[in-house]
Amino acid sequence: MAQNQEYNASSITVLEGLEAVRMRPGMYIGSVSTRGLNHLIYEIVDNAVDEHLAGFCTEVRVTLEEDGSATIDDNGRGIPVEMHEMGVSAERVVFTTLHAGGKFDNTVYKTSGGLHGVGSSVVNALAKQMTVRVRKDGNVYEDTYERGVPTTKLVKGLLPVVGKAKNSGTWVNFTPDDTIFDKTRFKEDDIKSRLHETCYLNPNLTILYEDKRKGTEEKIKFHEPDGLIGFVKEMNKSSQPVHDVVYFKGGADNIEVEIAFQYVNEFKEDILGFCNCIYNAEGGTHITGFKSMFTNVINNYARELNILKDKDANFTGADVRNGMTAVVSLKHPDPRFEGQTKTKLDNQDAAKIVSKVTGDEITRYFDRNLEVLKGVIACAEKSAKIRKSEEKAKTNLLSKQKYSFDSNGKLANCISKEAEKCEIFIVEGDSAGGSAKMARDRMYQAILPIRGKILNVEKASMDKVLANQEIKAMINAFGCGFSEGYGNDFDISKLKYDKIIIMADADVDGAHIATLLLTLFYRFMPELILQGHVYIAMPPLYKAIPKKGKEEYLYDDKALAAYRKKHDGSSFTLQRYKGLGEMDAEQLWETTLDPNARMLKSVAIEDARQASAMTELLMGTDVPPRRAFIHEFATEAEIDT
Q1: How far is CA 624 from CA 239, 316, 370, 630, in A?
Q2: pLDDT tens digits, 351-379
Q3: Cα–Cα distance between 193 and 271 in angstroms, integer?
Q4: pLDDT tens-digit profile of 277-287?
Q5: Which CATH number among 3.40.50.670, 3.40.50.300, 3.30.70.920, 3.40.109.10 corresponds to the domain 403-539+601-636?
Q6: Is 114's pLDDT higher than 50?
Q7: pTM of the full predicted structure?
Q8: Largest Cα span, the chain
């Protein structure tokens, strides 16, 4: 590559209008996968929810249309349509200008969950077509766009009137741009879960959902007048509760806090955080404030009741929260997040106010409900006892065998110690492991072979998990410890590799191995997934070898069908890879290891509640629900032949 190109003022590219969104969509919606696709709907819905929070919207209609588009219709005030100082209708400004909206000062919206004026324009930029109809002042105004570019001619800068209206509101229909997104079919289960969740957080709001697409036709009315109490009950519907749901609220400085919690007779912790109705997957300051104060209060009560003696150490936070299901909902006039898609709240005042409200309200509640308090402390006592015994077992088990790099044929470590540049491949089988060790870039790529299918940790006891040789090998290799229900020895800062890549055969057995590994990471090292360190390698299924021309690797049956169509009438030999072990080192490097040529799937968690429930359903011990799920979705399965 030439190195003498000039770098001057002419080298600086300025993206006008919405070009930046189309150039780097992941910066605005997270990804161009199904997750990002669904996010388009959420952005428009969130605008309607902001109208509800402001006191003007009671109903939202979300429709997945037969033609693949989505329609969101609310009965709020309607987007302003009068002339803006920019010389066009305010609606046109909202849908074509980044950071334009009514959410920057707190005069129109006290709180907001949208992307502060980015959401509507981003959806428009990533839509093949969009139509906006505003019902306001007895009229219906219309505007249309194609890939963010207006196609409706304004009359002296104002929108044309296309009809009369008896009520007010905003109607938006858009079709995702198939040149931007990997897939353009909305995933209905995720959307329904998000809409249902929104109604739990807003008990006075009704959302009418309709799917008109062939094969998935459905109508649902979401309305949850019990709010967070109903939310927690739904989360615990398959568990045995220790007490009724406890609910309280409070606030200060225009910050409002709502919290509901309940303990169940299971050793798990399930705490969800929301700010302005947006789910914060990585929690944040509001969750920290709740956890720390709750732990302090329980420890104080335990000492007052003489359950903890002077010589006893305090219960840990994990002890206190084991068995807890909680939802923390915060309304904040000026939220700050880490990342555009709001995965973690960063406001320090949120921690202080949530902590104060929690301390005041649960103290008031427990003073009046001593039996509930004793039940909560009993959960902490039981957890602490198990934690201490597990710590002893863990110390004994992990100390029996230490894995040193390149010494026992197990882990072939990389040379570099720069974690941000290094990656480790978890490879099933000695044959594939041997090829991978030969093919890898030794400077930055480590190989850890495992034998067959690891233990299903969703069904196993802790002693069996810790005794499993393959699991111990991974814990030692990663270097950051692991989390479990009775304590937390996990430290993400000690992770030795930026990427942990699951490399299994492209068949049913390989998929099962990947699923078992993901279950292990999700239950015992969730931060690896939450912080984007876990990937799945995509080895090819076929190699097409034509009589004339270049050989080509094909990664799935769709790619094979496309190849056959493209080379119709041409003669070629097709090689089917039944396993990674069938590839030599050169082929493995070309297809799966080379960072410049390989394909990786990034593993992410969009909905923690759904992820936990699905893991429990598919990997747990309860057979009838799993059988029912398999029967329901059997026709959608991809069968390896």
Answers
A1: 16, 36, 38, 10
A2: 999 999 999 999 999 999 999 999 999 99
A3: 17
A4: 888 888 899 99
A5: 3.40.50.670
A6: no
A7: 0.72
A8: 85
Average pLDDT, the chain: 83
Please report the DSSP string for 152-203 in residue order: SPPBTTBPPEEEE-SS-EEEEEEEE-TTT-S--S--HHHHHHHHHHHHHH-T
Contact 320, 262 (CB under 8 A): no
The three-state (H, E, C) secondary structure of 231-255, written as one string: HHHHHCCCCCECCCCEEEEEEECCE
**11: Cβ–Cβ under 8 A, 6 or more apart, which residues?**
none
Per-domain boundaries in the chain: 21-222, 228-393, 403-539+601-636
Amino acid occupying residue 61: R
Examine the pLDDT at 408 and tell me if it is beyond 50.
no
Nearest to 49 by CA among 204, 281, 250: 204
Nearest to 166 by CA among 210, 133, 135: 135
Query: pLDDT tens digits for 515-561?
Result: 888 888 888 888 898 888 999 998 888 888 888 888 888 888 888 88
Torsions phi, psi for 488 (to 5 deg): -150, 105
Sign of CA dihedral 185, 278, 173, 188: positive
CATH class of 21-222: alpha beta
- Report how far residue 325's alpha carbon sits from residue 313's, in angstroms, rounded to the nearest whole number: 25
8 Å CB contact between 184 and 37: yes
CB 235 within 8 A of CB 245: no
Q: Is the dihedral of CA 428, 431, 432, 438 positive or negative?
A: positive
Which residue numbers are catalytic?
A: 428, 505, 507, 509
Beta-strand (E) ranges in 339-439? 423-428
